[in-house]
Amino acid sequence: xxxxxxxxxxxxxxxxxxxxxxxxxxxxxxxxxxxxxxxxxxxxxxxxxxxxxxxxxxxxxxxxxxxxxxxxxxxxxxxxxxxxxxxxxxxxxxxxxxxxxxxxxxxxxxxxxxxxxxxxxxxxxxxxxxxxxxxxxxxxxxxxxxxxxxxxxxxxxxxxxxxxxxxxxxxxxxxxxxxxxxxxxxxxxxxxxxxxxxxxxxxxxxxxxxxxxxxxxxxxxxxxxxxxxxxxxxxxxxxxxxxxxxxxxxxxxxxxxxxxxxxxxxxxxxxxxxxxxxxxxxxxxxxxxxxxxx
Length: 294
What we know:
This protein is an all-beta fold. It contains 1 helix and 17 strands. It has one domain: Jelly Rolls, CATH 2.60.120.
């Protein structure tokens, strides 16, 4: 299957405020340093998802979400929200993430049939049934083992996997859609956003209008047609930020998340292509991230 990419010269903001997110808005400012966060519906490991002031946020606030993992652990993050969304509904998920410069995307152990792929299943749209889902993966190079440093300065979120969505049967030998790699420096904040138009079919097959878009740092980097519901039906039931690391983490490490928004309401902002999406609170450039020393 060919890769999906968009060559864009830039990005334009037509609004200066994010629209009200009807599902969830979380800035992770409510708790005390080191406490387990309360904004998610449920957590895989509550003790590993805490309020932190170790890094400055991308543009406002004192605290961020810190996710810590021990070597070989697999589960992280948790369920953002329960939903019940069917044919024709739309949903946007936007958040910021910060990976320290020494973060390793390699595999912790040789397992899970992936031979050291080191896949972080970082965003998941869950439908009825354990394996009926659409997952966004962050991948190290295939068969890349610790320390696996060749992931630096390339976009790690590089594929969507439609598990039990019928993608393999509808589109060929794989259930994945690959996204061209982009520059993705570690040690700084990046804004991520994903949009789904829910449908049991897609316009390229003449049986629906399922659509997926993805932005990084407010630039559209992927858009492709796919059925975004199981072909045999089934509403979107929940959304997960973080879930599972194939093969386990390669070492004790951590990363940060801030300003999470989930909405089914049409946002007020548009990108340079006229696509509606959630925009930052301010259209001023994000300040450089800095580690707090006090």
